[in-house]
Amino acid sequence: MKYKYTNENIRKKIKDDEKSFYISIAMISLAVFLIFISLLSTYKDLSTDRKIDPDNLHIEDETIYSAEITETPVEVYPHYYAVRTDKDVILMRGINEAIKEQQVVGYVKVKGILKNTLSKAKASAEKYFIDNNIYSSENMKKHSSFFMDCDKIGFTDRLTDEHPVGMVFGITLLVFWAMWESVSRSINAIKHLRPNCGSIRFTHQEIDDQANLPNSKWISSNDVYITPKIVIGLNRGLTAVEYSDIEKIYVKKKRHTESNKFRKRPFKRTRKKYYTYKVIAVTGNKKRLTLCENRGIDQQLRPTINEKCVRDVWADD
């Protein structure tokens, strides 16, 4: 069962991290949903068997049709083949590999997109239909006016050409989430559930009791509590370390860059660098526990911890 802290500072910090965590979950869920919709739509396009209906044609609109080849196609014009499918004869292109497979196994299914036929190919198709008495004059013109382009339809190409919106917005949302996470540190909401301790473990109740003692000191700039018995860190997940368990403390400096909001040239993109300082405590069981990470370390933090440890536990920079 989740422990409810009575200490105001700890309770507020945990509550703020929980709000950030819910926002992160919402952003990730929406991003995954949008990406899933794009992938699903693409999969449906490629997996659906949509037969060609000469009375209801969708030409040049990227609709994918399927057809079964059971007889050897006839080349009526270079790279254009007349293919018998069920009761119709359809012009197709890009079926060289399919023809080889059909000749071996006797049957092959192809997919393609309907396109308008070139004038020379159209004339050749009409001549073939007349010579073989396949269609009437009206149907001959209709069936020779389009062909099924069966060049390989890749999943990635279909996704980027026909269903990119969900993918683009989903990935963009994930980028915004990554930026949000770097600022909000919402993952702390999970880390708060189980205190991170060294050789000596502390319960939520014990941490709460220590923070509520009259002589406990709250360092708000680093989200750290200095209590009579333990030091409590909050901005990298709930961490509690007893002073006697601290072997040493060292600071890890990390360089970052950010947009310069006060640049002199408004149309020139510039970035400025800054540093964060991670305060890490090494415990008796050799665990490295992060007490805080901020752009600066409060001047009270080092002397106060040294006073509680009765020695200088801070390693030299």
Question: What does this molecule look like?
Answer:
The chain has a six-stranded mixed β-sheet. It has a five-stranded mixed β-sheet with strand order 7-11-10-9-8, with helices on both faces. Among the domains are: 60-147, no CATH class; 194-309. The longest helix is centred in the N-terminal third of the chain and has 40 residues, at 8-47. A hairpin with a 4-residue loop joins strand 8 and strand 9. By secondary structure, the protein is of the alpha+beta class. Helix 1 (8-47) crosses helix 5, helix 1 (8-47) packs antiparallel against helix 6 and helix 3 (119-131) runs antiparallel to helix 4. The chain has helices at 8-47, 96-105, 119-131, 137-144, 155-162, 164-184, 188-191, 204-211, 301-309; strands at residues 64-69, 74-77, 80-85, 88-93, 108-116, 146-149, 196-197, 217-219, 224-226, 230-233, 239-242, 246-259, 271-283, 288-294. It is built from nine helices and 14 strands. It is rod-shaped and about 105 Å long.
